[in-house]
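Bench log. Compound arrived from synthesis this morning; before running ITC I wanted a structural hypothesis for how glutathione sits in the protein. Inputs:
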Amino acid sequence: MIKIFGHPASTCTRKVLMTLAETKTPFELTVVDFATGEHKKQPHLSRQPFGQIPAIEDDGFAFYESRAICRYINEKVGGSLIPVDLKGRALMEQWISVETSNFTPHVMKFIYHHVFQRPQEPAVLEAAGKGLETALGVLEAGLTKSPFLAGAQLSLADVCYMPYIEYAMATPVKATFAKYPHVSAWWTKISELPSWKKATGKA
Ligand SMILES: N[C@@H](CCC(=O)N[C@@H](CS)C(=O)NCC(=O)O)C(=O)O
């Protein structure tokens, strides 16, 4: 049985929970208690040396990094979240890199400020707002070409954005997302998936 060490409210854990739900993979979640700083102490530091979540252990094989964990799970169980064709895989990797480098650092500023009680300076939010608009414009253009980021089917590219958008929708940047019709339609479609409801504890 795959063991995940994480927290159900954590964005990075949710990518993994979504991958597990979508691939119908059995797992056991061990909650790492952020409130008591469990992530910064042993034994968690042996699982994740940066003191972050999530981490995984599968039959004695242990590693960390949410996106690597998602790829591993999908490949291990023969899931459909990694395109089989070379071009589809290239697009998936492109969009995951955009998420990591150009989307998440900006959207997280709003999530910290409005959801996780970590106030950000106005100048930081202003810069993040500009970066987010640029990223959303690029996503909008991509989603005019295909229903999902890497083509005709849901892939890990879509999964990697989901936890951040879920929280962003509870902040004032919901209005920014609404300016991008293809992004909005894509979010409506993927956030209604039963697997996402399961991953976020709504079902
Ligand atoms: N690159 C890592 C980032 C993990 C990460 O930032 N996790 C957050 C929770 S979503 C965390 O543990 N934050 C606590 C900290 O950084 O001290 C991954 O994708 O797994």
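What the model suggests: Residues 86-198 form a domain with the Glutathione S-transferase Yfyf (Class Pi); Chain A, domain 2 fold (CATH 1.20.1050.10). The mean pLDDT is 97.
ITC booked for Thursday regardless.
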